Amino acid sequence: MDNNIVYEWLLNSTFTVSARSQSLYRMAPYLIPLLKPGVEIVDLCCGSGPMSFWFEERGAKVTGVDYAPYMIALAKQEASRRNSAVEFIEADIFTHELGQARYDLASCFGNSISDFPLSDFAKMVKKVGNSLKPGGRFALEYLDGSYHYIQGSAPRKGVYQESPELITFRFKEYLPEIGACVNIICNETRGEEYERRAYIYSVPVVKALTDVELSLEQHILLGENHFLDIFTK
User: Are 135 and 17 in contact (CB under 8 A)?
Assistant: First the structure.
């Protein structure tokens, strides 16, 4: 089963503009100072576009990139409804050409990095570094995935969404050779399930992989094991 199916299942609780409000409230004081008039932004793993629209509302010229067709279709529908000029592109962020010294700010929010292994994150950082203008920033929101397991508080099962369809998850196994946890995500309403790997990132790992291209400017604690890092070129 494709990842896009799970995105569709969880859209109403996870990927909408309203669902991002709590994280946005915490991040806004650190992001607003970066938004000078006419700033150009690339929003990586943009999903249905909540952060892209937020940036545009503050005067930015925004390009949103995401691999999921369902998400990009919804982003474009919302853009049409808003009469928005955000350019949404359905593409793989690892192969899509971001250009050279084009953007003032690159962003990746919603703990999207847990979807890909550390080697791919390193590739993304290199692409981001090349795409930023001198002095440009990279804003990364993520969870320290090792925290819950070290503390022993990681839930082994639970509910992602109750309506319009009941979506549950249960922990299956940890794969130490690739640094990922495997969860079974089940659409109880449809009787379908999906095996998802979530790659575990920690604060030191993120910093080590990013330091090759960019310098850490701010490390911000948003909540328990929830961080916003801002790097500069």
Answer: no
